[in-house]
Amino acid sequence: MNTVLSRANSLFAFSLSVMAALTFGCFITTAFKDRSIPVDIRVSKVMIKNVDDFTGPRERSDLGFVTFDSENTTTNQTKRKR
């Protein structure tokens, strides 16, 4: 006859297998979807400054600033097959 610990171990192993199968199913349903959208990126200003680095004694480091504009479409564009 099985002990309570043995039955709990079997139940845990079964539930872990079921969760792994569900996780794999969720992965398969979303892995091959087309998620590409049109994106337009423009860089308007790039600036590099030589500033003091406070991590070391009398060190200086480069600090870069980049200003850019991004335009994209975030609406749901699913194509329905009829």
UniProtKB/TrEMBL annotation:
<dbReference type="Pfam" id="PF04573">
    <property type="entry name" value="SPC22"/>
</dbReference>
<keyword id="KW-0472">Membrane</keyword>
<dbReference type="GO" id="GO:0005787">
    <property type="term" value="C:signal peptidase complex"/>
</dbReference>
<dbReference type="InterPro" id="IPR007653">
    <property type="entry name" value="SPC3"/>
</dbReference>
<feature type="transmembrane region" description="Helical">
    <location>
        <begin position="12"/>
        <end position="32"/>
    </location>
</feature>
<keyword id="KW-0256">Endoplasmic reticulum</keyword>
<protein>
    <submittedName>
        <fullName>Signal peptidase complex subunit 3-like</fullName>
    </submittedName>
</protein>
<keyword id="KW-1133">Transmembrane helix</keyword>
<keyword id="KW-0735">Signal-anchor</keyword>
<dbReference type="GO" id="GO:0006465">
    <property type="term" value="P:signal peptide processing"/>
</dbReference>
<comment type="similarity">
    <text>Belongs to the SPCS3 family.</text>
</comment>
<keyword id="KW-0812">Transmembrane</keyword>
